[in-house]
Structure formats: structure tokens, C-alpha cells
């Protein structure tokens, strides 16, 4: 990004000679120009072609030195940073206003324990379904208002029935890793002989879980 001070020079650059000089100058040369005087920049940068040398003929050495040679335009950077900050604030405000979306998006699965037919927990469950996450529901007493939502989700096949922890293992495909017989062949660089059966089952679950 070049400073806005270059706008007048670029307007004179009708044949693209100045742009070519900019693009062909190595980064190391720009570092040198920053440490030298305006007269040095006039001679070694603009003096590369007769056209570019003529472009700055009416500028003083100090004016040439004041040209920002590459890097960020400070004003433009501030505007861009402010716009990004505002965008982040809007996004965070939306997330704070909709915590069920965070829960549904971060979780591998959602278990609804109690929910009325229009309960807030069902909003999270619906979002989880939209994100292709697993949803399970705990059935409750018949006639209980607090269980109507769970029963409706199970009845309409939007949620699997949760009756015991093994149901979660099966829904999230943990059962295969948890119930392996004996010590299986080591995965990755882990050696099964270095761990107890319980420790290796845990490692297997972590390695086989989807990213």
C-alpha cells in the first residue's frame, strides 16, 4: 500500500512507467531509500527512467522524502482497523444474543433432558440438526408438560432416544473405540504396550473422533 501522496504522480504516469519502477524495485532498495535523503531517492529511484525523473522535477528533495515508499498508509490502516473492529463487535453481539447457536455449533451432539413443546432447549436442538449434529432426547413421564418437547422430537425422528450413556456412545460412534477387545494395534506413533487397557481406550477414542 502506497501513501496518498503518490496520487498526483500516478496521475502523470499515463504509460505505466512509474508503476513498472515501483514493481521492479526490490524490497531491500526501499529500505535503503528510507535511510537516505530525498536527493538520493530522486537520483536512484526516480532517476531510473527519464520519464519518472521528469515527474518529480518540480518537487523539492524534502517533498520527495515525504513520499511514503511502500508499507501501509496510516490513515487507511486506521480506517481498515476500525471497520474490522466494528465487524467483530457486531459478530460478538450476535453471538451473545443467540447462545443456543454457539452451543449447537461447538458440540458434537446435543441431549435434550427436559423441554416443553415450545421450550428453548428445542431451539438449540433444531440448530444442532441444521449443523448436522446428533440430537438425543430423554423421554419423561407421559402427560408431563416438561417432557412434551422431548417426546415430540423422538416421535418425529428428529432425536434419537436417550435411555443410557451407551446411546451417546453409539450416536457419536464412540462405541467402536470404547468397546475394543484387549489391546488393539497401536495407532499413529503410540505403542499399546506403554499404556493400561483403560488408558489406551481413551487414546483410541481421541484419535478416532472426527475433527
The tally of beta strands, per DSSP, is 3
Instruction: Give the overall pLDDT as a whole number.
Output: 77
The side-by-side strand order for the widest beta sheet comes to: 1-2-3
Gyration radius, in Å: 33 Å
Unreliable parts: 71-75, 183-188
**Helix-strand pattern:** HHHHHHHHEHEHEHHH
What class would the helix/strand composition place it in? mainly alpha
Shape estimate: elongated
What is the helix tally?
Answer: 13
Distance between the termini: 38 Å
What percentage of amino acids are in beta strands? under 5%
Major beta-sheet overview: 3 strands, parallel
**Proportion of residues in helical segments:** 40-55%
What does this structure look like?
It is a single chain. By secondary structure, the protein is mainly alpha-helical. Helix content is 55%, strand content 5%. The chain contains 13 helices and 3 strands. It has helices at residues 7-12, 17-24, 27-35, 38-44, 50-55, 61-65, 74-97, 99-106, 120-130, 148-155, 165-171, 175-178, 197-208, and strands spanning 109-112, 134-137, 160-161. A 3-stranded parallel beta sheet has the order 1-2-3, with helices on both faces. Helix 8 (99-106) crosses helix 9 (120-130). The protein is elongated. The chain starts with 6 loop residues before the first helix and ends with a helix. The relative contact order is 0.07. Mean pLDDT is 77; it is low at 71-75 and 183-188.
